[in-house]
Amino acid sequence: MALMKELRPTLPILIGAAVMLSLSGGIRQSFGLIMPPLTRDIAVSVSDFALAMSVQNLAWGFLQPLAGALAVRVGFRPVMLAGSFLYIAGTLTFALADGLPGVMLGAGVLIGMALACTATAIALAVGSRAVPGRVRSLILGAITASGSLGALLSAPLGQFLAVDFGWRAGVLGFLLLALGMLPAAWIAGRVDRLPLPVGPAGLRQESAKAVLLRALRTPSFVVMTAAYFVCGMQLLFIATHLPSYLAICGMDPALSAQALAAIGLFNVFGGLFFGWAGGRWSKLGLLGGIYVARSIVLGWYFVLPPTPLGTLVFASAMGFLWLGVGPLVAGSVAEMFGLRWQAMIQGVAFMSHQLGSFLGAFGGGLLYERLGSYDLAWRLGVAIGLAAGIVQVGFALLRPPPPHMPVLETSAGSAR
To answer: Rounded to 10 degrees, what is the CA torsion of 129, 196, 194, 148?
Structure first.
């Protein structure tokens, strides 16, 4: 009760950031449902579609630090609104595509640019500024949890429209949902009116170049960034190729939507749990534990013949582990480097994540096209995930925790 009273002035900001993240992440996470009917309708193969998703992730990753730096210069609201308009334009271009160029431009380039302005790094940076440090990890977990609720709406809607009216109708359904990002981004942009908590005078005026160089010399950040590669590789392999894998195995097409919805639902619990846990235990150690647990679940599922029940259990377990990394990475960056350049530094780490996403989406499609199965793809995902998780946990145990950026908290003030 006391926490809600304390957060009341900035609650609209937090809700706006959560809704924006929920829609941008949920729609994009549901694109895999469009792949089977799309590849049957126009001259786009599985590997072509996977390449478009890979381009999306590369555009998102490489533009994320620029979007974070731009938010410092012009404010979060212009960046988030521009991203929302790009998302709408990309979805419309995708719906009108009649070949690979349209899919690549809409679902790939434009959506990738939009995600750099509306997805996890920006949304969590907004949330970090709107709350005091003592509850930051918990609130970031709540925003992350809400970020998957969009999949509970977009996945069933896209599946229903695509099956009954064609894949273009499914994408147009996503377009209608994307319109909701505009008011959400506008409200979340009220964060620009809040005073930024300040640190020591020497660090408060630190330039983007200086803080970036300091980040690249910080071992904890470098290890976290390298391990983040595995996160993207595993998640995008599942999001892009699970519907195709289930179709190959003769499963009911509705199972794909149910699995993605289960991922979205259980990510709510995972986001809340890891946000809470990150305020109590080592964030870097928890990150490593997530990568190890994901790899074990991934190996268990693919080594057995798929069943509807097994698929939903797998999706639920992966959902719990899906975006729990978000509050842990965001919280670690804020602790190590402060809030001013958080979105930019978090974006640098996210570039590694997106390179992994490229490998997971495109590499999985390429291996399937060459070998006729996903066996080698999932085995590589399990092996690399276990290695990265063990290294991350070992580093967290053997190295002292990263120094916390001293911050003088300020009141939230008015955010009209």
So the answer is: -10
